[in-house]
Protein: tricin synthase
Amino acid sequence: MAAATSDAAAAATNESSGGEQKTRHSEVGHKSLLKSDDLYQYILETSVYPREHECMKELREVTAKHPWNLMTTSADEGQFLNLLLKLIGAKKTMEIGVYTGYSLLATALAIPDDGTILAMDINRENYELGLPSIEKAGVAHKIDFREGPALPLLDQLLEEDANHGAFDFVFVDADKDNYLNYHERLLRLVKVGGLVGYDNTLWNGSVVLPADAPMRKYIRYYRDFVLELNKALAADHRVEICQLPVGDGITLCRRVK
Ligand code: SAH
Ligand code: CA
Structure:
């Protein structure tokens, strides 16, 4: 436990006290909670990059030049989402938190040609940065992008009975302090047997740090909300859950009632 905790501390603060290995690990700490960088690189190079759609690669490279690129979905998580959506046969989907659209494109490529994604973000500019790659992939027609905070949009959706239980899949990847508010609404919008994926539920490894450990400001700010979410999901019998150490942690919730 001690080693895991200090790794998480190094990742969360970007300190390099533990020598080369930890320094390198801290750089990708946001993207991988694996034991070493080498294992993560191995996965990317062996199984992910060789199979990555060329437009996903292009979007990833465009995003890499953007100052907030830390927020992007990692390539391995994109591959996971793409396969997951095909496995569950998702057709009507939603995404909260688009940024430049890497997870959005992974979703758009996975659903059928008449599938839909209701995509929400407060920032349209970043979405438009990735849009040319989405268009090139021939899947832009599946996306209905709405600019604005997601919570009022969800409430608007709930006003119409036709939207109740209508969604097969929702990917939640925006403001972590609202996840539990999203959850209450999404449980009414997703169908019974449908899936909601909450992203970043290991929050850069900070979930196992003591409260007084050094952390980057934004990590510290959202940490309590992530801890609260994880507890609440584990206690919520309206859903079956599975928390996976993919990317920064994703918790899948299947609505059962
Ligand atoms: N899924 C994206 C990453 C999302 S990053 C990818 O694969 O790259 C988080 C996004 O949430 C940011 O683009 C931010 O603008 C957006 N966001 C923050 N608060 C929001 C809110 N209240 N409603 C909708 N989007 C929000
Ligand atoms: Ca994320």
Remarks:
- The domain at 30-255 is CATH 3.40.50.150 (Rossmann fold).
- The chain has a mean pLDDT of 90.
